[in-house]
Amino acid sequence: MRPYVILNAAMTLDGKIATATGSSEISGEEDLRRVHELRRECDAIMVGINTVLADDPRLTVHRVDAAPGDNPVRVVVDSMARTPPHFRVLNDEAPTVIGVSESAPPERVAELRKRAEVVVAGTRRVDLHLLLERLHGMGIERLMLEGGSTLNYSMLTGGLVDEVRVCIAPMIVGGRDARTLVDGEGIDEMADAIRLELKRSYTLGEDLIVEYTVKG
Ligand SMILES: NC(=O)c1ccc[n+]([C@@H]2O[C@H](COP(=O)([O-])OP(=O)(O)OC[C@H]3O[C@@H](n4cnc5c(N)ncnc54)[C@H](O)[C@@H]3O)[C@@H](O)[C@H]2O)c1
Ligand SMILES: Nc1nc(=O)c(N)c(NC[C@H](O)[C@H](O)[C@H](O)COP(=O)(O)O)[nH]1
Predict the structure, then answer these.
(1) Is 51 annotated as belonging to a binding site?
(2) Which residue has its alpha carbon closest to ligand 1 atom 14?
(3) 146 lines ligand 2 (CB under 6 A)
(4) Domain chopping of the chain, boundaries
(5) Model pLDDT, residue 48
(6) In 75-175, which residue ranges form alpha helices assigned H by DSSP?
(7) Distance 80 CA to ligand 2 centre (A)
(8) What's the Rg (C-alpha) of the chain?
(9) Sorting pLDDT into bands at 50, 70 and 90, what band is 70?
(10) Residues near 90 by beta carbon (within 8 Å), at least 6 away in sequence
(11) Which atom of ligand 2 is nearest to the CA of 18?
């Protein structure tokens, strides 16, 4: 058993979720409120370690009203336990789970255990199936996946995503080194693409929101 997973992201019209230099303010004000409402409805928010290192996110509900207990559990996928102990994802605003692999240096794991629950899953990379199973065992039934591109790819190709919600902002930045909604190794044949079904589309200010379910 695993949680129901909603992938949420904001991208430019050309599919970038950050520029090559890591600048990533894409969503408009209204979309950011939508994101935080979605955070409030979920039991956990999951991101990859590169997103933590790039943005130092809080991963809490802070743009809409929230009672202290409304903050979801924060989950970082971090094979080598590189989450810096002073980063905001480890503050006391919400509980945090760090998913590491068996290859993570024990001294860094011990340091993280002072501030978070550490789940060891996988030998070199985090085994996402196993991590999600463990999260479900902790009572997490609805999980919001907030990127980045590399984790999005692994989660989608692992068959671990149920819905995709994307904010398309009216911006274009280009750049072959800029992260896109989904990177990773990529699928070779279009016939093998992950198929989605469009459920809803609407505008929020200048942004276009598109919501899909992933076909099983
Ligand atoms: N616009 C948005 O909605 C949005 C959202 C999130 C992140 N971002 C941006 O995305 C960028 C980071 O994306 P990224 O692709 O570099 O990194 P990421 O956040 O997807 O982290 C990927 C890393 O996670 C670790 N990992 C461990 N096990 C893994 C597994 N099984 N599968 C995949 N990764 C695994 C690896 O170290 C891997 O390099 C940042 O610039 C950030 O600002 C944008
Ligand atoms: N929906 C969305 N629109 C954006 O324009 C953007 N840059 C992100 N990025 C998601 C990523 O996880 C960010 O790191 C957090 O949004 C940081 O913000 P918080 O401190 O957690 O509120 N997400």
Answers:
(1) yes
(2) 148
(3) yes
(4) 2-212
(5) 98
(6) 106-113, 128-137, 149-157
(7) 23
(8) 17
(9) confident
(10) 83, 96, 112, 115, 116
(11) 7
Q: What's the CA-to-centroid distance between 131 and ligand 1, angstroms?
A: 16
- Any idea what the Cα angle at residue 126 is, between residues 80 and 176, rounded to 5°? 80
At 92, the amino acid letter reads D
Count of CB atoms situated within 10 Å of the CB of 132: 24
Q: Any idea which fold 2-212 has?
A: Dihydrofolate Reductase, subunit A (3.40.430)
| 151 Cβ contact list (under 8 Å, min separation 6) | 46, 47, 48, 51, 77, 145
Q: What is the dihedral of CA 153, 156, 162, 167, to 10 degrees?
A: 30
ipTM, two decimals? 0.97
> Would the annotation count 66 as a binding residue?
no
| Any ligand 2 atom below 6 A from CB of 166 | no
Residue 55 is assigned to a ligand binding site: yes
Q: Which atom of ligand 1 is nearest to the CA of 125?
A: 28
Q: For residues 119, 125, 128 and 131, what is the CA-based torsion angle, rounded to 10 degrees?
A: -10
